[in-house]
């Protein structure tokens, strides 16, 4: 008897599982959307950081509701879109009646007798339940991603103490799977219906959840512990949707079905329309939180898939599958011939000198200063670690302080070279361009900002307060994806859009009014033209990048160096470029971009190499410098060796008068060492940690005598207006924000970085 029951159980389980797989296939685009949200919110550092930015946003009461509205729209679309794919629904759909069509016709043909087989009962049940479950799962993933982020950032609170995001997600999935079994579902339903006045209780709970979400938002202080409130709000949204979707038959009796389904589809098409408009005007995306833009983009791709499936059903062709296959073929075909990601080349008349000749001139033009200096003359070699906008701002702030402190002498007299990787090198370049322009005009640059409502003290902070990420995400999932598939039309790729944003922001804060030409848009070598022995040679700006096809380190340098042993093996970017394109170079902003190419978010830059007859041979591609060396330490050590050689050979009397100092602009990131990796994960773990290991090795070689590390500092969460008088920090709740890695910094994170600058000022003062 027991054996018979066991066999019957496994037989029914096999039937149930096959039906579940079949129903999931009918919800395939929903599964893809859920998987995309899971991967982006749980496994990509840049998007995990966006949860911090969402919580720290200045326009909190606009950005959080918009994010929640899009999540809710996604859940409702996942719940209802699959209904349109059943034959008894789509056969009657037309363009005229699509909005307002009630996709419930398939329920009319169900066998309602009590003698139906288990397979039939399970199939009918899953058609109703699976879409609701998937909508709920999307919201659960978004809520638990906040808990996951708190765990990663080490933000301990009552939620992280009692809940594990991974375990909670597994338990949630198991519970939702139980609801897919019709007999278990009926038991849960009977337990629920035993509650007195069920309708009133459900309505009261739904209203209470809305009030809870609003009240939790009003209590936000932008502190990381308020991520707990954001987690609780998102969890309330999960419960709200779960109760509403599984009790919809109660509420839809009192609500017109046409308006309900029409509103859901209309919301989906409005989201798609907004996505299309933003792709035509990507600057508008910069006014929206990147996480919201990400959900908007994924939802729009979901709606496009829905349209293709519905049309395919009507014309009896697998249109989505055919479109995906054709897209794969077209991308393969167009990739080799596409010029969409080609770097823009600029004319140049500047001939590069050998590095040792340049250093000779650098020392010669400062010889009188070195001789007159009472103590050892500091020669500074700056190296800036990568890490998105926070790295760029940190290096920019450090340079700005040293410039202001010395009234320009830091740049004019002591700085020998600037190098780095990714965001740190971007900050170097912005500082260099500003200082060089002021030097050419024989005036001092101004890096301090006028006091504003945000309380920011430096212009660099105002530059980095801009959102440099949303337009890239939008373009990656929108116009650039379209270009890759069709190769139609000409427009700026997401890398060029980033360059334009950098140039505009820098011009707004560092150029005089009415000046339209961008300083960052100038040709790279133009900053080194007309340099004579009577004018002190400016510092060398060395921008690094990684050659995609070979993995070799490339240096974008105003001087030649590949003949020098200390720098051997590092490819000369401009030398390679000018082999095919004599008298050509790139803009400073382009050099910054290919040095700071976040994976996928920023495309690799391409340059077609030509033979002697002008025929294309192959295409070089260049990516983020941080793949190879995330601080540029190897370049800085090479510069030091070449400089010492020139000094000893040509200026022996100055050897004892000069002290070389490595200014290391880094981040104080605490990484917990993994006790043990499994044999499956060990190879990937090694690859992941190699870059970090190389960077730490380079920093150790440079030394920590003049290393200034960025450590988040406690600050007052809100800036009060002057009309309210000055506030006393001791009376306020101090917070220490976690600093994200991406290209979008909140005001509160920037203010913490300015506070960190105050902490390292004594150490910076010792450099000069």
Automatic annotation (TrEMBL):
Transmembrane segments: 20-44, 64-81, 129-150, 162-180, 200-219, 231-249, 261-281, 287-310, 317-336
Origin superkingdom: Bacteria
Keyword rRNA-binding: no
Keywords: Membrane, Transmembrane, Transmembrane helix
Name by which UniProt lists this protein: PNPLA domain-containing protein
Species assigned in the record: Aquimarina hainanensis
Keyword Aminoacyl-tRNA synthetase: no
């Amino acid at each position: 008897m027991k054996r018979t029951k066991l066999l019957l159980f496994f037989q029914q389980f096999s039937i149930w599982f096959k039906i579940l797989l079949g129903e999931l296939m009918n919800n395939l685009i929903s599964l893809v959307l859920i998987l995309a949200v899971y991967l982006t919110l749980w496994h990509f550092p840049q998007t995990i950081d966006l949860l911090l930015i969402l919580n720290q946003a200045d326009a909190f009461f606009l950005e959080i509701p918009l994010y929640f509205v899009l999540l809710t729209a996604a859940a409702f679309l996942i719940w209802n879109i699959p209904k349109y794919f059943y034959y008894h629904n789509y056969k009657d759909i037309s363009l005229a009646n699509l909005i307002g069509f009630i996709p419930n016709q398939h329920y009319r043909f169900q066998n309602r007798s009590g003698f139906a087989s288990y397979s039939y009962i399970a199939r009918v049940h899953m058609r109703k339940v699976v879409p609701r479950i998937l909508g709920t799962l999307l919201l659960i993933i978004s809520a638990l991603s906040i808990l996951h982020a708190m765990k990663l950032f080490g933000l301990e609170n009552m939620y992280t103490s009692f809940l594990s995001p991974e375990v909670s997600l597994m338990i949630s999935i198991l519970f939702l799977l139980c609801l897919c079994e019709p007999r278990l579902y009926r038991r849960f339903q009977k337990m629920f219906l035993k509650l007195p006045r069920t309708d009133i209780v459900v309505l009261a709970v739904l209203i209470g959840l809305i009030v809870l979400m609003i009240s939790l938002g009003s209590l936000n202080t932008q502190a990381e512990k308020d991520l707990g409130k954001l987690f609780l709000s998102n969890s309330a949204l999960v419960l709200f949707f779960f109760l509403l979707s599984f009790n919809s038959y109660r509420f839809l009796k009192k609500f017109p079905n046409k308006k309900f389904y029409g509103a859901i589809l209309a919301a989906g098409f409005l989201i798609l329309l907004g996505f299309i408009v933003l792709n035509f005007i990507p600057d508008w995306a910069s006014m929206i939180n990147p996480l919201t833009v990400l959900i908007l983009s994924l939802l729009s791709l979901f709606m496009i898939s829905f349209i293709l499936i519905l049309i395919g059903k009507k014309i009896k062709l697998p249109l989505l599958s055919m479109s995906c296959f054709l897209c794969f073929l077209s991308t393969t075909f167009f990739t080799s011939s596409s010029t969409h990601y080609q770097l823009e080349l600029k004319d140049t008349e500047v001939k590069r000198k050998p590095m040792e000749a340049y250093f000779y001139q650098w020392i010669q033009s400062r010889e009188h200063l070195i001789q007159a200096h009472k103590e050892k003359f500091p020669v500074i070699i700056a190296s800036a670690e990568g890490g998105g906008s926070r790295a760029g701002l940190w290096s920019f702030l450090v340079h700005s302080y040293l410039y202001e402190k010395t009234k320009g002498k830091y740049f004019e007299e002591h700085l020998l070279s600037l190098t780095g990787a990714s965001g740190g090198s971007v900050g170097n370049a912005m500082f260099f361009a500003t200082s060089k322009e002021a030097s050419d005009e024989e005036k001092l640059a101004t890096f301090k900002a006028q006091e504003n409502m945000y309380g920011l003290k430096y212009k660099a902070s105002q530059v980095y307060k801009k959102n440099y990420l949303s337009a890239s995400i939008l373009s990656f999932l929108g116009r650039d994806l379209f270009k890759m598939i069709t190769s139609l039309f000409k427009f700026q790729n997401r890398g060029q859009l980033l360059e334009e944003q950098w140039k505009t922001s820098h011009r707004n804060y560092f150029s005089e009014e009415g000046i339209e030409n961008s300083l960052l848009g100038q040709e790279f070598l133009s900053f080194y033209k007309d340099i004579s022995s009577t004018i002190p040679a400016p510092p060398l700006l060395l921008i690094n990048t990684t050659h995609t096809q070979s993995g070799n380190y490339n240096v974008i340098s105003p001087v030649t160096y590949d003949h020098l042993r200390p720098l051997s093996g590092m490819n000369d970017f401009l030398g390679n470029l000018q082999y095919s394109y004599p008298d050509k170079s790139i803009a400073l902003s382009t050099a910054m971009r290919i040095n700071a190419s976040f994976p996928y978010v920023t495309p690799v830059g391409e340059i077609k190499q030509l033979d002697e007859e002008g025929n294309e041979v192959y295409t070089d591609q260049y990516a983020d410098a941080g793949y190879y060396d995330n601080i540029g330490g190897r370049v800085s050590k090479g510069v030091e060796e070449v400089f010492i050689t020139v000094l000893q050979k040509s200026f022996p009397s100055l050897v004892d008068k000069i002290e070389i100092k490595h200014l290391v602009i880094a981040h104080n990131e605490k990484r917990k060492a993994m006790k043990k990796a499994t044999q499956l994960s060990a190879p990937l773990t090694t690859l992941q940690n190699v870059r970090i290991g190389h960077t730490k090795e380079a920093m150790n070689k440079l030394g920590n005598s003049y290393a200034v590390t960025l450590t988040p500092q406690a600050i007052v969460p809100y800036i009060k207006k002057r009309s309210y008088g000055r506030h006393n920090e001791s009376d306020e709740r101090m917070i220490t924000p976690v600093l994200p890695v991406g290209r979008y910094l909140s005001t509160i994170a920037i203010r913490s970085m300015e506070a960190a600058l105050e902490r390292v000022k004594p150490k910076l003062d010792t450099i000069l």
